[in-house]
C-alpha cells in the first residue's frame, strides 16, 4: 500500500487483535489466495494475457466460495494486480498485455472469507528468464521470508522491517522500494500498522499474539524510486529497471509465525518455528509455496 506516516505511530496505534477463531477464518481466506496463486503461476507462459490470468483468478476465488478483495477497492477494476517487468505493483490486467518469454510478472491476489482477508503476491518468470532476473526474484522472496520469521510475539515491528532490508542488502545491489509498504490486515485489507521494508530492530509497535501483517518487499535492479502512471494505479520504477514483489499474510501466534497464505503455513521455509498443529491439510503439496528450492530460514542475528 502507499506509504503514509511511517514511523509516526508511537504507542497510540490500535492494531486489531484476532481471536484463534478469527485466525482460523483468515486461514481459509489465506488458503484461497495461496491456491489461486498456485494456479495462476502455473498458467503463466508466453502468449497468455494478463486479462486471462485475471479471469482465472476470479473463477478460482469465487469457485472457492470467497470474494475477491481488490475488485472495487477504490474502484480498482480487477481481481488481481499483474505487474510486468519495470512495473512494481498495482498493474491492471489487460487483454492487450500478452506475456513474452523472458518477462517477469508479479501477481498480487486478495480474497475475503466471512469478512476476513488474505493477501499475497508472487513474482514468476515467463518461460526462461535470465540468471540476473532469477536472482532478483530469489532475493525478494528470501527477504520476505527473512521478515516473516521475525513475526514473533514479543518482538517489534522494526525487527521484521530490518530483516527484510538486511536480507535484500546481503543478496546484492538491489533497490528496496520505500514508497510502498506492507500493512496490518484482518477485517480490512489495509490496516494499521504500515510495514516498511526497511527499519531498525527493536523499534516500532510490540508484536503481540492475534496480530496479522502483510509483509511485501519490492526490490528493483536499479533505483528504488517509483513513478505512478496516468492510469492512477500502475507503479513503475523511475529508471525503468525491473522489479520483483513477494507478499504473504502472517499471523502472530503464541507459538510463532503462521503464514496464512502459504499452503503449508510456512512449515517448510520456517522449519520448526511455525505452529502447525492445525496444518497442513493432506491435499496440500509439500515443499515451498512457489515451487522454488530456496533453503529454510531461521531467526538469526542481523
Ligand atoms: N495487495 C495490494 C497491496 O497491499 C493491494 C492491491 S490494491 C487494489 O498493496 F486496489 F488492487 F486492491
Ligand atoms: Co498487501
Can you offer a commentary on this structure?
The protein is α+β, with helices and mostly antiparallel strands and 302 residues long. Helices cover 25% and strands 22% of the residues. It is built from 5 helices and 15 strands. The chain has helices spanning 20-43, 50-63, 131-148, 157-171, 267-270; strands spanning 67-68, 80-84, 87-89, 104-113, 116-125, 175-176, 182-184, 191-195, 212-215, 218-220, 226-228, 235-237, 243-245, 248-253, 256-259. The strands form 4 sheets. Strands 8-7-9-14-15 form a 5-stranded antiparallel β-sheet. Strands 1, 2, 4 and 5 form a 4-stranded antiparallel β-sheet that branches. It has a 3-stranded antiparallel β-sheet with strand order 3-12-11, with no helix packed on it. A hairpin with a 6-residue loop joins strand 7 (182-184) and strand 8 (191-195). Helix 3 (131-148) runs antiparallel to helix 4. The two termini are 26 Å apart. The relative contact order is 0.18. Residues 277-292 have low confidence and may be disordered.
